[in-house]
């Protein structure tokens, strides 16, 4: 029997199966983007499917803390928009 990978939501800290969460990645070049495949190389942060958590990404500094870098508001807005378009 295979072990199911568990990850925590960056905003509400709720633990869930990795496949039910949305992944945001920072790659080696420092680009930060939404990863719908869950397979892109780089450091990942996860957000649950609750709309409140997705929307809080824009105001919260937790994404910046997770990636240890400043993130432009336009990038955050783009990530939120892409997540909403790919909602499970």
Looking at CATH, the homologous superfamily is YlxR-like
Topology as H/E string? Answer: EEEEEHHH
Rg to the nearest angstrom?
Answer: 12 Å
Report the principal-axis shape: globular
Kindly estimate the percentage of residues that lie in beta strands according to DSSP: 15-25%
Do you know the CATH topology? Hypothetical Cytosolic Protein, Chain: A
Number of helices: 3
Average pLDDT metric: 96
The CATH class is identified as Alpha Beta
SS class:
alpha+beta
Count of individual beta strands:
5
**Overall tally of domains:** 1
Index terms:
88 residues, alpha+beta, Hypothetical Cytosolic Protein, Chain: A, 3-stranded antiparallel beta sheet, 32% helix, 23% strand, globular
What does this molecule look like?
This protein is an alpha+beta fold and 88 residues long. The chain has one domain: Hypothetical Cytosolic Protein, Chain: A (2-Layer Sandwich), CATH 3.30.1230.10. 32% of the residues lie in helices and 23% in strands. Strand 3 and strand 4 form a beta hairpin.
